[in-house]
Amino acid sequence: MSGIDAPIEPGLGSPTWGGFDHSRTRGRGAADIRRSFATAARLGWLMEANWTDPILFFIYSVAKPLASALILVVMLDVISGGAKPEFRAFVVIGSALWAFVMAGIAGLAWSVLEDRERYRMLKYVYVSPSDFLVVLLGRGVARVAVGAMGALITLAVGVVALGVPFDPGTVNWPLLVVVMAIGLTSIVAVGVFMAAVCIQSRQEAWSYPEAAAGALFLISGAVFPLAVLPAPLQVIGLLTPFTWWIEGVRQALFAGSLSSVGGDGSFFALVAGHATPTTLELLAALLATGTVATLASIVAFRASDRRAKDRGLLDQTTGS
Amino acid sequence: MSSAFVYRPTASPQEAANWSRRQIIATDLRTIVGRAYPRVTGLFREKSWVFFEVLLPFLATSAFVFVYRAVQAPPEYIGFVVLGGAMTAFWLNVIWMMAQQLWWEKSQGNLELYFAAPMNIMSVLFGMAFGGFVMSSTRAVAVLVVASALYGVSFAVDQWFLLIGVFFLTLAALYGLGMVLASLFLMWGREAWHLTQFLVEPVYFVSGLNFPIARLGILGSVAIALLPLAVGLDAMRQLAFADAAYPLGTPSPEIEALILVAMTVVFLLLARWTLRVLERLARKEGRLSIRWQ
User: Residue A105 and residue A193: Cα distance in Å, rounded?
Assistant: First the structure.
């Protein structure tokens, strides 16, 4: 059978009346977005996980956040000799949560670099009918899932082996769900921003997302209270959603734990008039900073997208 | 003096293929310069690296300084963090731009050209190492100078020559390890990417990046025996903070310098051997190019 005689797949042939169906170019709206996202997420997961057996994959995924937590635990123990258990819990929780941030920020940016520089598929993905941002978000989901696994295991090791006090009965589940939802959205937003940066950059941008996450680590109160920082840095820290997300998760999971935002001498205490943020303040701040971060990242991504098309950056490959 | 690369009429292709010692050395030196060139030149082509590879890592190092400040640690511990932060630049360069590089070149379709070219592949690795060293030095110096000034780190050095010697020995051993890993990563394929991730924070931990490695006990001893970053950092800390109340339990800087010499020799020989094995295997199994080429 020749190619001309081959049966035409349903939906791919000309309309029965023989003309051009303009509705096809418009796509199917939400259904297309869902399909693109699901396909990209599945592809991302397969690329992450199908190269090895689950045990080895698990070790690789967990080693990084666990080692980060152990570095901090040993640093504290060297100085205090284990005399400050509340601080140990503080750093274990903070570094576990930071695994989410690292995975979220790096996942999207690395998808751009992998597709452009290694597989050289970015231009084809870009010209496909799928929305490029939706595909990127889908690809990033797999790495966020891996980050989530690392975070959970680190928290579990912290509770079981490192003396992090955890009582499931005191967990504030509604608060946890809300802060996780807003926090993860913010993380993905910053990931989109880094993807926008990496589209503009060269192959060495592999290390940029981790460098950005490392810098945010300083001002997010992840492993030490913001009160330790100079006041201007505290202000910058209070303007980032990660600070409020980490504080929110701490309050939800470990009620009464050391506050990363407030405390004696903190800028927050000076402005708010009380030492630690209330739940309402925390949620309002997280929502406000998260919304600004999300909108800013979308604007930055669109601008980067236009510039990349203009300068032919979507199919550039660099090397050094 | 005539160039080693000048056209030389020969009677047969066999005769043309017989290179003089001078031609071989000149070609290998050119390869080193050629492979280092894009890394050094790249520094001036795209300036964004100053922000992403100098300023942001400096902030990340600062986070650990503030952890120590939060628990009122003695000032020399701030110095440990700053020194560790500077040395991470070299480690990251070794695993991202040495260990992964051959695999990366394979993905980009360059590897078969490397093997087909009339040069020693070790020269390519030396060129990558030299270019990487120049790139990383900028970041390391920036972190060391700025952080020392900003956080008031005071060094107490009694043996400058030994300190400088240990620094360069650490780099030689680190890049030697990078050359070994480059061959191994090429064989491991996609696992290499994950292994790179695995070699960051866990290696920082066992190398005692921000704390005296003696604290890790047996694990620290194993790291000193196997990891150039661990032994080099420990020796440099002992030499740079000679007046600090340093936890005992690790060898003296002189012994650690000898360990680094041994590591350098072993890693370079191992790199040479693994490259030969790899080349033979790759030619036999057709793995120099990627499947879809």
Answer: 8
